Amino acid sequence: MCGIVGLLVKKPELRPQLGSLMVPMLIGMTERGPDSAGLAVFGTPVNEAHRKINLYSGMTEAGADFNWHGLAHAIREEFGTDAEIATSGNHAILTVGSAAAPIKHWIHEHHPKLHILSTGRSMDLYKDIGTPTEVSDRYDFSHLQGTHLVGHTRMATESAVTPDRAHPFTAGEDFCLVHNGSLSNPNGIRRMLEPRGIHFDTDNDTEAACRFLEWRLREGDTLENALQKGFDELDGFFTFLMGTKDELALIRDPFACKPAVVAETDDYVAIASEFRSLAHLPDIKNAHVFEPAPEEMYVWRT
Amino acid sequence: MSEITVDLAGKPVREVNRLLHDPLNGVTTVNVLNPDGAHNIAVGVNEAVKVEIHGNAGYYAGGMNKFADIVIHGSAGTGVGENMMSGSIRVKGFASNAAGASAHGGLLVIEGDAGLRCAVSLKGGDIVVDGNVGSFSAFMAQAGRLVVCGDAGDALGDSLYEAVLYVKGKIKSLGADAQEEPMTEADFTGVAELLAKAGLKHDPKSFKRIASARSLYHWNADADQEY
């Protein structure tokens, strides 16, 4: 199983409520995904020269006591750049004033167990093992603000229950993907991408879809063209929900094996695996509720 | 003649199902408020009672229904009316995948569109859809009738047995062993009766009949998987 949720608010005055509107959506998908949960939230981008690197210390020996400020200090010393860190237990957002790639490489060399969750200007990413309620409380999801977000509750089928195998998966910058379903050719996708220098963090099937689509976007495809190539190349069952800096996108496999329902009002677009995650939303009784068709692309822009 | 209302807001669906399964003692109508997409609402009812669900139902609403007349004033999730034995279910909105799966009897009316695999493995029930049906509808349907007033998706009636399908709109493609056949007087009468029961106004003359060519009934070792 697994549950997916997405929310995009159309009015700036609703951005402070993004997290509080979404938490009941995530918790509503507990039965579909009780073992892990996560989300990616998109908000005001940092300055063009800056990058936000989201980090997870839950797999280090120190865990939530990881010395985050020591890490920021060491990066400032090593790279002679700004490095601000905002921490929340085992999660930290490191904002740096220079290119992210060398810093990420340095983190990987010096702190191999520190997991790099995401990189970008607009996106922050949280994921961990635990029920959706536990994970929401751990990272205070209800106070998140922004324009749109993509969330997931996991019931693992294709790889182990670990924080790095939870969703969302990310690749490149400001791109993430959540998945309900299972792919039958993830290893074929990996064998195609790895010789092109694309590195995988886990053995998870969803990561293959995420890296494939991000590779197409990086090669210059529009989101629509990348998704069309996804239909051609990705085999299996899927409802995919993706986030970019200014879009939410949804596709379902041709057999519509995995569910999805959308509710749209003048204020928001909300997506969930099932209506029970949408039932609490404001003015839901007057929302346009529909089931997205298989093999169609749905893209909503902020 | 009495009526009961159950508000499911913050309550488990067991509250309404226990009420429906226990002796009804003269209750003729049960209203369900705030269904909020809960699964299994009004499954396994075994009494002639009216159930009015005011909102969107989750998976398997009205599953295994016997005798009850159930109205969903909203949409229905996967498997509405699956394995229905008798009675009726009316969905005012759209229905998700596998509506009426394996239904043995009764009437399922969907006023909106139905998703994929509508009437899959139908075993004798009647289904009338005012909108469109998705791909693989009536897959391996064995008995009963499916009336589609809109369009049908890909592979309609794949591996059909003796169920009969009537479609007013376009059929994207027929499945293996499904074929269009001429409408007989009995077909026109049957469609007219089902449309009347469903309360839908369409001209029975505008429907096509799809049934099994029965070429898959016997194993053909020379077919080489090409049907």
Brief overview:
The complex is a heterodimer of chains A (302) and B (227). Chain A is an alpha+beta fold and 302 residues long.
Give a written overview of the molecule.
The complex is a heterodimer of chains A (302) and B (227). By secondary structure, chain A is of the alpha+beta class. Chain A folds into two domains: 3-45 and 128-301, Aminohydrolase, N-terminal nucleophile (Ntn) domain (Glutamine Phosphoribosylpyrophosphate, subunit 1, domain 1, 4-Layer Sandwich); 48-121, Alpha-Beta Plaits. Chain A has helices at 18-28, 68-79, 100-110, 132-138, 186-193, 205-218, 223-233; strands spanning 3-9, 36-42, 51-56, 83-88, 91-96, 115-120, 123-129, 148-154, 169-170, 176-183, 236-244, 247-252, 261-264, 268-272, 288-290, 297-301. In chain A, the strands form three sheets. A seven-stranded antiparallel sheet of chain A has the order 7-2-8-1-14-13-15, with helices on one face. Chain A has a five-stranded antiparallel sheet with strand order 9-10-11-12-16. In chain A, strands 4-5-3-6 form a four-stranded antiparallel sheet, with helices on one face. The model of chain A has no long low-confidence stretch (mean pLDDT 96). Chain B is mainly beta. Helix content of chain B is 10%, strand content 25%. Chain B contains two helices and eleven strands; from the N terminus they run βαβββββββββαβ. The longest helix of chain B has 14 residues, at 185-198. The radius of gyration of chain B is 18 Å and the shape is elongated. Chain B starts with a strand and ends in a 15-residue tail after the last strand. Chains A and B meet through loops of A and loops of B.
